[in-house]
Design the sequence.
């Protein structure tokens, strides 16, 4: 994962009523194994964060340029300004935002890096925590270290997708539920506009999958195998910080008929985007309840409990509100 350019600017809050101040770096960071490890740690922490996905808004509702960030980034990539100047101007605006909403100091990490053929720009406001270490004399000593889990503000931009103009999901940024105004201010600073509702799209995808399994009338083992394949693929994409693609998912679900699930989605018109950022919380709720006893075998998706399926604990019974079509037809024929 080559790092092309990197820098750290300090955003410092002095004691008392003093305003937030920027202590800008004058030069880029030299390459080092520690910096490579920091990028890997950032990626892991960022991928685990609740995020919004979208793109640069061209103008505000008033018709003004939404943010100078996109134009300054374009100027930097075209060689019109160097990385240090570009990142310093960005750090100045973030310092103002942080000063208005936080009382914590932090270090702004800005990285221009590459993974395979894809180039990214990543940035994160990093805070510190106090810890302990062991020195060369085997004594306990205080150690100040970065707290990547806290990471108040962070964003990652897929430069290839942005410059190609073929996606509306090339920009992702943290959306801290505990600081709504800060998160909104950060999106405004980036000039970002949400292009997809990750949670809603993931729920719709899981509904499409459940419909597909029901339509195909799959045996319990096959249904469970496909559910596991979907969750494994989605979870892997989430860990990598990449969206799910409907075509790739369809291939994962059925190697013999790689287009079957994809065609099901398109023919039923679920309105899904070709690429869907996986929402971890929604995925974690998608599991199947299964049970077999006395000649009765029952299996249903966990999200149906409380809506399509109810459990009466006092009577120890399940109430199925919508009987599957195939089962309903069999019951009618039997009657």
Sequence:
């Amino acid at each position: 994962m080559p790092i092309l350019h990197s820098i750290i600017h300090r955003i410092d809050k002095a004691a008392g009523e003093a305003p937030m101040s920027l202590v800008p770096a004058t030069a880029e960071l030299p390459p080092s194994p520690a910096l490579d490890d920091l990028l890997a740690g950032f990626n892991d922490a960022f991928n685990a964060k609740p995020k919004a996905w979208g793109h640069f808004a061209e103008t505000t509702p008033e018709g003004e340029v939404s943010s100078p960030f996109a134009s300054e980034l374009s100027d930097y990539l075209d060689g019109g300004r160097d990385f240090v100047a570009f990142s310093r101007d960005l750090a100045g605006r973030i310092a103002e935002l942080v000063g208005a909403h936080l009382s914590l100091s932090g270090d702004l990490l800005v990285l221009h890096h590459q993974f395979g053929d894809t180039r990214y720009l990543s940035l994160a406001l990093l805070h510190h925590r106090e810890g302990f270490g062991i020195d060369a004399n085997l004594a306990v000593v205080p150690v100040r270290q970065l707290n990547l889990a806290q990471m108040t503000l962070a964003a990652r931009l897929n430069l290839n997708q942005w410059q190609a103009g073929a996606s509306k999901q090339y920009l992702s940024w943290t959306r801290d539920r505990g600081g709504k105004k800060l998160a909104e201010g950060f999106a405004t600073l980036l000039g970002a506009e949400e292009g997809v509702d990750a949670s809603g799209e993931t729920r719709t995808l899981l509904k499409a999958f459940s419909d597909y399994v029901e339509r195909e009338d799959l045996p319990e083992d096959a249904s469970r195998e496909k559910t596991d394949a979907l969750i494994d693929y989605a979870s892997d994409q989430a860990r990598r910080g990449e969206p799910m693609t409907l075509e790739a998912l369809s291939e994962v679900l059925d190697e013999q008929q790689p287009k079957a699930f994809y065609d099901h989605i398109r023919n039923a018109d679920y309105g899904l985007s070709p690429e869907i950022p996986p929402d971890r919380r929604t995925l974690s709720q998608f599991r199947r309840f299964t049970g077999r006893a006395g000649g009765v075998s029952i299996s249903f998706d966990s999200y149906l409990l409380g809506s399509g399926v109810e459990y009466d604990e006092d009577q120890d019974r399940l109430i199925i509100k919508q009987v599957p079509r195939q089962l309903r037809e069999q019951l009618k024929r039997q009657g």
In short: The chain is about 40% helix and 30% strand.
